[in-house]
Structure formats: structure tokens, C-alpha cells
Amino acid sequence: MHTIAFTGHRPKDIPGIGFIEFAAALDALVKGRTDLHFVVGGALGTDSWAATYALTRNIPYTLVTPFDLDVMTRFWTDAAKKSLRTQRNAAEAHIVINPGAYDVRAYQTRNEAMVDQADVVFAVYNGKRGGGTYNCIRYALKAGKPVYNLFPLNGRMRQIAALA
Question: How far apart are CA 132 and CA 37, in angstroms?
């Protein structure tokens, strides 16, 4: 089994990239492989796209959320809440890092747990220094996991060997 964790920005930070572009990039990479397992984090954008991709292509996945869904989705739209619940119900497993109250540290702990389960990390990274995606990539590199940016500025997927 080849396990892929995903990290990436929210849609507002990656203009021009949505589920269709994300799915096309993954289709080109996975090319019908049946030995895949995804690890997704439940957030809007890259995480939800990866879970939706897995659902539509019968790829098993683990959902790792920083909090219970009610805490995590408190300010989300009803449609986004429903989508995450559907993703949770279809997941092979759902791991909740910090059940109960909100704690900002749970986001990084969630990212580390996802990376620790993975063989490789696929990112949707816009080059911004700081924030959850940057910190997740930094952790993955320190852990010796290969990280690939699905949408680098030059338009071709490339391995991230280090962060500036």
C-alpha cells in the first residue's frame, strides 16, 4: 500500500485551482493504481478535494481532524459541514487529535500525525512562508518524507527539497 498525505492552502489562497484542476493533476499521477491509501485533514480546499477524489475513485482514506467536527466546522456553511460529515462516514478511520475544545496547537499535531502515516506528501503550496501548509511541509522534510508540490509556480509538479 502506498500512503499519500495531503496538505495545502484554502481556496482563497490558490486562485485558479479548484477540485477539477486538483483531480486532473492526481489523475495524471495515480494512473489507475489500486495500491493507494490517502490521509486527509478535513479542512476546506486541498483536504476536502483529496477526500472527494478518494470517494469518487474508491480509494481508501483516513480522516485526521484537529477537533470534533462540531468544533472544527463551527463557522462553516451548511453545505461544507454536510460534505465533511459525508467524508467522515466514508473514511476507513477517523482520528480526532483534540476531542472537545478548540486548541490551535491541534492543527500542527494533526499535520504531524498525517505525515507520520504517509510514505509521501502531496502539497498544494503557493510559496508562502508561514502558516499550516508551510509548517506541514517543513515537518515532512525534517521527517525525511518526499514532498511534491502539485501546483508549483512554473506549472510542473516538482519535489520540494527544502523551503526558503
Answer: 22
Distances (CA, A) of 93 to 63, 87, 89, 106, 130: 6, 10, 9, 18, 29
The CATH number assigned to the domain holding 31 equals 3.40.50.450
Give me the number of domains the chain comprises. Answer: 1
Residue span of the structural domain in which 28 resides: 2-160
Q: List Cβ neighbours of 18 (8 Å cut-off, separation of 6 or more).
A: 11, 49
Cα gap 75→152, rounded to integer Å: 30
Residue 46 near residue 78 (C-beta atoms within 8 A): no
Q: What is the pTM of this model?
A: 0.92
Q: What is the mean pLDDT of the chain?
A: 91
C-beta atoms surrounding 92 within 10 Å? 11
| Position 119 confidence tier, pLDDT thresholds 50, 70, 90 | very high
